[in-house]
Amino acid sequence: MNDMNRIALDIEREAQIETLVVSRGFKDCVAVLNGDKASVVVESEPLTPGQVAQVSEIVYEIAGILPVNLKIIEKTAG
Predict the structure, then answer these.
(1) What is the pLDDT of residues 46-55, one digit of tens each?
(2) What is the pLDDT of residues 1-53, one digit of tens each?
(3) What are phi and psi of 42, to 5 degrees?
(4) Structural domain span for residue 10
């Protein structure tokens, strides 16, 4: 039962991260949480350091995952 609760919480957090990232001006976002690690795919031109900081802050605030455990993957439009 604990695994199901954790999975449900992760799905909710992933959706929150995606919504907040898109609200910051990114065209699209997919977040995947896996324990104490996260991957976030964002559609954008090359990310600026400020944008990386924004995504890192959102993931930390929502999921408590440190930037060192976050992988941000850029997807270019096209």
Answers:
(1) 899 999 999 9
(2) 688 999 999 999 999 999 999 999 998 999 999 999 999 999 988 899 999 99
(3) -125, 140
(4) 2-75
- Edge to edge, the sheet with strand 28-34 lists 28-34, 37-43, 70-75
Q: Could you identify the residue written with the tokens 């699209």?
A: 28
78, pLDDT greater than 70? no
Residues in CB range of 71: below 8 A, 6 or more apart? 37, 38, 39, 40
Total domains in the chain come to: 1
Instruction: For residue 38, give the 3-state DSSP assignment.
Output: strand
pTM: 0.92
Where residue 45 sits, what CATH number does that domain have?
1.10.287.4300
